Amino acid sequence: MSRTSETSDVGSDVTPDVLVIGGGIIGLVTAWRAAQRGLATAVLDPEPGGGAAQVAAGMLAAVTELHYGEETLLGLNLASARRYPEFAAELTELTGHGLGYRRCGTLAVALDADDRAHLRELHALQRESGLQSEWLSGRECRRLEPMLAPGVRGGLRVDGDHQIDPRRLAAALVTACERTGVVFHRVRAERLTVVRDRATGVVTADGTVLAAGQVVLAAGSLSGRLAGVPEAVLPPVRPVKGQVLRLTVPERYAPFLSRTVRAVVRGSHVYLVPRENGELVVGATSEELGWDTTVTAGGVYELLRDAHELVPGITELPLTETRAGRAPARPTTRRCSARPTSTACCWPPATTATGCC
Q1: Which runs of E-coded beta strand occur in the chain?
Q2: Are 44 and 19 in contact (CB under 8 A)?
Q3: Per-residue model confidence as pLDDT tens digits over 77-113
Q4: Cis bond before residue 42 (omega within 30° of 0)
Q5: Residue 76, Cα to own-chain centre: how many angstroms?
Q6: What's the average model confidence in pLDDT over 171-175?
Q7: What is the mean pLDDT of residues 144-159?
Q8: What is the pLDDT of residues 198-256, one digit of tens each?
Q9: What are phi and psi of 154, to 5 degrees?
Q10: What is the pLDDT of residue 161?
């Protein structure tokens, strides 16, 4: 029998086996799985399911996002991709929530000779890594996606990439946690409590002390700001601002795109992610502006300009939403993309995890 889930700011009388700091995708999945295994579990977050999940595009692109030097990460991403269909089906069956999960693939295209050469190198790396991708001429790209600009010089077709709607995923995970008895404390963590080199719980923003047997730090870009975490294990993460647009594809234009389309335009990465419900997500800027989440006219202009160069017909679509969020990044790595990967290290009995979706 599952425990009753609490959603108020007050604490539970039961000391949880596991306390997860952060109610994003990684935190919610961790809490759900822990509760499934019979552990008394709690999540500490003022807005579970909010944060980066409300902004991210949801690309699950293990193949397309391969980069030199990331062979170890590739293995993790491919294993995750293989398990994703079963994970999505399990979550949908439990909650009744559609997740917008699509195995629609990705088309990465080049608009000039330099980008074409770069994609050729990426194709070679993919083949050397045993991955499935197909090189297409510009004409073949436009035959696959007729809305592409005439100037497309070539591209990579990757059918193994998937996508999911992070907003729907987050909502389903909150429901799954509630149904498995996870307790929600809708308040911000102020400080980690440590006794003899062991994490014992947290002090919340309202002064409440919450004890726990195990503590998981999964607060994304905020993980590096939590007071009380020993410097030796403090996650070296920083926030990187990303602005994202959402448009609607009217029925008369459908299907506008059948798969995720991405490219490099003027040195900036741009992607267009079509949802099954007619939404089109366009992103994303990458700005080193600390904790700022202001949507700017310049950011919107740059995204629309680059997307228009890739798919000219996009200017005919209604613009329905502009958002900005923060993705965690480490000093020695690029910004996290919108895929559910994480980096984790263990400090018994605490675990830190940072990631975005």
Answers
A1: 18-21, 41-44, 59-60, 106-110, 134-137, 154-158, 162-163, 183-185, 189-195, 198-204, 209-211, 214-217, 238-248, 260-265, 268-274, 279-283, 319-329, 341-347, 350-356
A2: yes
A3: 999 999 999 999 999 999 999 999 999 999 999 999 9
A4: no
A5: 15
A6: 98
A7: 96
A8: 999 999 999 999 999 999 999 999 999 999 999 888 999 999 999 999 999 999 998 89
A9: 160, 175
A10: 95
Sheet of 350-356, strands arranged across: 183-185, 41-44, 18-21, 214-217, 350-356, 341-347
Backbone dihedral angles phi then psi of residue 53, each to the nearest 5 degrees? -65, -25
- Write out the E strands in 34-177: 41-44, 59-60, 106-110, 134-137, 154-158, 162-163
| Nearest C-alpha neighbor of 52 from the set 24, 32, 17 | 24
Q: In this structure, what token pair is assigned to residue 202?
A: 């947290």
**Which residues, other chains included, contact 285 with Cβ-Cβ below 8 Å and sequence gap of 6+?**
241, 242, 243, 268, 299, 302, 303
User: Where do the domains of the chain lie, and which CATH numbers do they carry?
Assistant: 1-104+162-237+331-357 (3.50.50.60), 106-159 (no CATH), 238-329 (3.30.9.10)
Has residue 152 got a pLDDT over 50?
yes
Q: Whole-angstrom Cα distance, residue 179 to residue 36?
A: 10
Nearest partner of 194 among 11, 350, 346, judged by Cα:
350
pTM score over 0.70 = yes
Residue listed under structure tokens 């299907």: 255
What single letter denotes the amino acid at residue 265? V
Band of pLDDT at residue 331, cut at 50, 70 and 90: confident
